[in-house]
Specification:
single chain, 474 residues, alpha+beta, 6-stranded antiparallel barrel, 20% helix
Amino acid sequence: MSHIRIAIALALAIGVSAIGGYWYAYPPTAMPTPAAAQQTSAPAVERKILYYRDPSGAPFWSATPKQDSAGRDYLPVYDGKEPSFDPPAPKPQAAATGPRKILYYRNPMGLPDTSPTPKKDWMGMDYIAVYEGDEQDDGTTVKISLDKIQRSGVRTETVEARVLVQPIRTVGTVKIDERRLTIVALRSDGYIEDLFVNATGQSVRAGEPLFRVYSPQIQQAQIDLMAAVRAQRLPGLKSDGYQSLDGPMQRLRNLGVPESRIREVRETGVNPRTIDWPAPASGTVIDKRIINGQRVMAGDELYRIADLSHVWVIADVAENDLAAIRLGTRVVVTFRAYMQHEIEGEVTFIYPELKPETRTARVRIELPNPDGQLKSDMYADVVFRTGADEQPVVTVPDSAIINSGARQVVLVAKGEGRFEPREVKLGRRGDGYAEVLEGVNGGEEVVTSATFLIDAESNLKAALKAFTQPEAPK
């Protein structure tokens, strides 16, 4: 009996063991153990997605989820780790024996690394063959990953035709318009008996009396005119000298006597002892050299009257900037006494000589001064807007130009993270732009920020390509 009991116990034990093994064979989702359930409920660690890449390993990227032409989802690339997937098996290099010639093999991640023979990168991905005539890499472009483009802040701008205004800044000084100056002087000796304009800075109008003068020569000329008038009125007097009034009247005109006084003497027959000398022009008395009771000589300068409704600004322009300035160039002038007020004018004359001390040329600008605020010898800040009347030209921003001293280069964006360094020939500059004579055309995109980063990538690619170029057979 004891043996039978032992056998039954063993059979029960084996059955229970077999049953237990059968239950452990179920998947954890059907009957999870406490430990498995606890593991399943643990939250997954989230990772930041940098971008999405082509599932076949081709050098195509996207900032958002998308599918390729075969309907396969692009694979996410996480921060600090490449996506875990099995790369497709390398295709046989049948093209090497086909009509298309393989030039070299490039890095599958777009890095500036090439190889003359097939190889793998550090992640085990096959290098991509570049065929002759392949537009993805023509030997002059550089490929930058979209992630690096976003992180480096690459910006582009379209090449456009615009009117290129080149401001030339300099200083100037207000001067009186020389064509609006008038000097008052007598053509005979005389004595000043009274002054009507007796202060510098006083405004006068044309014809307004300036002073009262007695002149013996004018008195004698008036007597001759009166005698000629009386002779014409006497019957029977036939002398040619008295019949004509032209001689006496012309002598008075030669002495500067106004026509109103000549007409008065001729018509009234009266010889006034003094004459009130009229102002020959309207303006402001800027110089007075006469006092009451003074004896004056013929030709002495008594007053200097200036019309200040228009003034000149004489600007000093550097010799290097002189070629850009011409007659009619628009100018904006700001005076240091009135910094908030700008006045527009134009160039009316370029003086024919340079100052040897400063190597500058004088340029004349005419400005209106209706309210008389502009004073002689005021300082002014002058901006010549050269090129404002020129035709539009193709331009690129100054920030897009990489200047090595011997040449100037811009980076042309060709799409999909590809950039082409292109040498350009530049012309005039102004308003933050430079004229392009050769190198780029309107409508192309040029890089305006992070240019040195892309230029460094381009130089590295050229160096690596030269380094990995197979040696020519000897």
